[in-house]
Amino acid sequence: MNEEKHVLSIMVDNQPGVLSRIAGLFSGRGYNIESLCVAETMDSVVSRLTIVTKANLPLIEQIKKQINKLINVIKVHELTGSDYVEREMALIKVNAKPEHKAEILRIVDIFRGKIVDVGTEHYTIEVTGTDGKLKALLSLLKPIGIKEIARTGAIAMFREGK
Amino acid sequence: MKLTGAQILMKMLKEEGVDTIFGYPGGAVIDIYDELSRTDFRHILVRHEQGAAHAADGYARASGKVGVCLVTSGPGATNAVTGIASAYIDSIPIVIITGQVPTHLIGNDAFQEVDIVGITRPCTKHNYLVSKIEDLGRIIREAFYIARSGRPGPVLIDIPKDVARGMLAFKVPKEEIRLKSYNPTYQPNMKQLQKVIKLIEKAESPMIFAGGGIILSGAAKELTEFARTTQIPVTASLMGLGGFPGSDPLWMGMLGMHGTYRANMATSVCDLMIAIGVRFDDRVTGKTDAFASQAKIVHVDIDPTSIRKNVPVSIPVVGDCKITLNALNELLKEADLSELAENRGKWLKQIQDWKRAAKLKYQHSDKVIKPQYVIEKLYELTKGEAIITTEVGQNQIWAAQYYHFDKPNHFITSGGLGVMGFGLPAAIGAQAACPDKLVVDVAGDGSIQMNIQEMATAIQHRLPVKVVILNNRYLGMVRQWQELFYDKRYSHTSMEFAPDFVKLAEAYGALGLRATKPEEVESVLREGLFSDRTVIMDFKVEPEESVYPMVPAGAPITEMLL
To answer: Does B181 map to a domain?
Structure first.
């Protein structure tokens, strides 16, 4: 069966050790984590974890049940298959030789990014978007010369019914 | 009133109905032990912390209550880990209280410090580090609630020394426990159960596969009624033995790697398998693609993760085994079972034919003691009434095959983790729970040496457990694999250098007996079993006897070596 990308949004008790329980579950059972993002929600005793994983259908069912079984997990939502918004932020440090500066600025503009740090030999770009958008940007910047990348991993939410 | 953390712990244990604690003192729990000396808890001083965890496990299984053990920080806690892991995979409710270094030293690599909450995260149902005394009362209540509810399991509470010594104006919490993130499903979906009844009405060759969930939810009576009403033959996993009477004509014997011929053959042709309180362990299914491949599988379990983890299921039912069986029994009163007798005749005859074709058997001898013979005699002399604990390996499987369990809570074995050294401390726990019962540990000469120090515990606390050693001078199960699959290369499985178990028993202050010839077996058993002392019986058995039937690991379970 085909392995596909699944985005899970998990509400957990905001307590020490909870992240380790979830990460330990994934490593202990051989599940894969593509990215993981965690922060407090409006309710300070609850955190939201967004995990992107790759699995076939029976396995993703098992993964969701196993996460649900953890005592500190309040709710597991699978976003994949529903209408949802997904965003990720990246900081990209690129070589900025004089002959490339204009092109970099043009690309950044097209992708609605920002330059957040400038040096004589580099630009640092801030950009948000889906995984697809970030990949497209990176492929355009690669020939110019990427020095460093930091990515947050995806965060996601259901869209509200209209 | 102001109480210390240690006093709060004692008060809360009393509230939870605890009467017996298995433990071992140390620096980080010295304040708890000091307080313990002023209470009337029965404390059983083990000789190694692994023994404390297994004893709590044995106590829980024999009594149906939550077992409790108390150990110190660092090595005390790590020694208990094997016992915790075994209780976890077998779903046994125990609460483990560990001492911890004072909170200001945590993370400093202090003396006897270990991150036991981190270490036991994957082998507990849940665990807690009590970082402030205000949380202690609530955490203890939650721990017992989580341990015994839903799919039971071990819960660990790590109490730093300054929390045990701290003071708090304390009132026992009385409000109902509500965990927004934990809410086990007990009630099955009735629509699913209607579908099950429909399948039962139509099925021509159905079977029931019962597991440890039957024992844990106390559903043996309900299962028996269900099977008899529907005339469906029953098999069980190792953990399910005793969940259905071994003397009933519908009983097919155990399933799996060392299951009976008829139970294993039945899986391959049955058209309906009703699996209740099982998790389809690889030792049961063998090659999963070939397992019950003709059947619609109904799977009842309280843990949703058990369902569709290892085998595809047609009708999943999440719920408590006992409640579900009760509901099914009610529905059956309305069901159309008119053609039942007719429908089942052929199928039950087929099972009888398999039974005749390949019974559980062994080569009898009048020269050398056969281990199976010892278990048969043990069964006869105890009339099947004893609580049997086992070590792990051949001794465990022979006990499962030749002691025909009629009642639940009478077979106590480390099923999932397979811990050698489990049987003696588990027997101690079971004997502490059931002082009037005969408790027998069926052991091998290898396994018994893994926790032999607990003999001193049994003697000190006057727990008259009986140890039956099937002494073959080998690590028998591994030797058997080496014989069958590794051209008899017996790499390091010889246990020739062992102590004289009779003298060892005497050294501990127990009664030691030995049988070397078949005609001595019965008299040694009689003397040992009916003594009021702790006893080791050393049976020198056939060294190269093997357990049959056997399915090679990974093969379909119908491919048995008989």
So the answer is: no
